[in-house]
Amino acid sequence: MKIKHAVLAMAMAFSVGAANAQSEVNLTLSGGNPGGLWSLLGAGIDRAAKEANPSSVVTYQATGGGFANIALLGQGRTDLGLVHDAEVQIALAGEEPFNAPVTNMQAIGYMYNWAPMHFFLRRDIAEQYGITSLADIAESGAAIRIGVNRPGNITANVALGMLEAAGATVEVIEGNGGSIVRAGANDQADLLRDGRIDMVTNGVFVLHSSFRAIDENNEVVVLSIPDDVMEMAGAAFGTTGFVIPGGSYRFQPDDVNTQALGAMLVTHDGADEEAIYRLTNALVEHIDEVRAVHNSMQALDRELFATQSILPYHPGAERALREAGLIQ
Fold first, then answer.
1. How much of the chain, in percent, has pLDDT values that exceed 90?
2. Over the chain, what is the mean pLDDT?
3. What does the alpha-carbon distance between residue 86 and residue 3 come to, in Å, rounded to a whole number?
4. What is the dihedral of CA 25, 27, 33, 35, to 10 degrees?
5. Which residue of 68, 201, 265, 301 has the fewest CB atoms within a 10 Å radius of its CB?
């Protein structure tokens, strides 16, 4: 009798172990710089997978960012990638830095859509030349040294595209005696404080630490964006309209309409359907694990997760989202 009970217990343990093995997730996720928001999102995605099955692992890999992740997905060298929607749009069109359209990307879900483009200009220059909008820069004749993110960072593409659409091409800026200075977000804050640039451009969350440093250590205004520039940015980069609330910064009394970047979790069309299905289920059921990684992620919910429309959903993700009633 004891032998029968032991055999039965062993069989049950084997059955549970087999079920766990079948439901666990073991995937690699390509993100961005170590310690940045995307690394935090990677940790949240891993925690959500572990909530569904403690044996699951989503291994985060630091990379150069969205463009690099799209290239890795294109080659099937990673299972998952975090990418900006604007980067996806560029990849689908086969525009620089890609040599041809990238066609194997498929969506899992949206992470956020509230990283608005900011254009901070020194207050003394703005008042001297009457500059309140991007549209005023070209005609002002002001010699403005404009900070733009490093090559390969999507906010640099968007900033330069919006400036050009407003008539402030590189040629016009340089013709006025100004220049384009390439630097990351935190470096731009330092350059502005030290008087080495006059204007900061970047697309991250309202009151991001780099923006707070700019606002606290300098007298700057936030420039408005003309409607036609807004339309161009939306069409070219897949960005969406966003309002920076009045009073967000010291010398910004009124709302400022701008364009915002979003970030998506994507995979490739060769990814295992069951694995992506299980991961998507885990994210839908345990979205709070992702929300908890940073205060700026509080607006993420199940409904937002299922709102992307740039890419087709991976079949596994689509099945999970349909079962959850989040897509039709």
1. 86
2. 92
3. 63
4. 20
5. 301
CA distance 191 to 196: 5
Structure token digits, residue 276: 């992506």
Q: Which tokens go with 137?
A: 């820069």
d(CA 206, CA 242): 11
* Rounded Cα gap, residues 97 and 12, in angstroms: 54
DSSP string, 5-72: HHHHHHHHHHHHHHHHHHH--EEEEE-SSTTSHHHHHHHHHHHHHHHH-TT-EEEEE--S-HHHHHHH
CB 209 within 8 A of CB 281: no
Residue 318: name the closest of 310, 309, 327 by CA. 327
Name the DSSP class of 296. Answer: G
Q: Calculate ∠ Cα 224-95-266, nearest 5°.
A: 85
CA atoms within a 13 Å half-sphere pointing along the CA-CB vector of 279: 31
pLDDT digits (tens, 9 = 90+) for 19-75: 445 589 999 999 998 888 899 999 999 999 999 999 999 999 999 899 999 999 999
Contact 140, 291 (CB under 8 A): no
Asked whether the beta carbons of 261 and 82 are under 8 A apart, the reply is: no
Residues 306-322, mean pLDDT to the nearest whole number: 96
**Euclidean distance between CA atoms 291 and 297, whole angstroms:** 5
Give the pTM.
Answer: 0.85
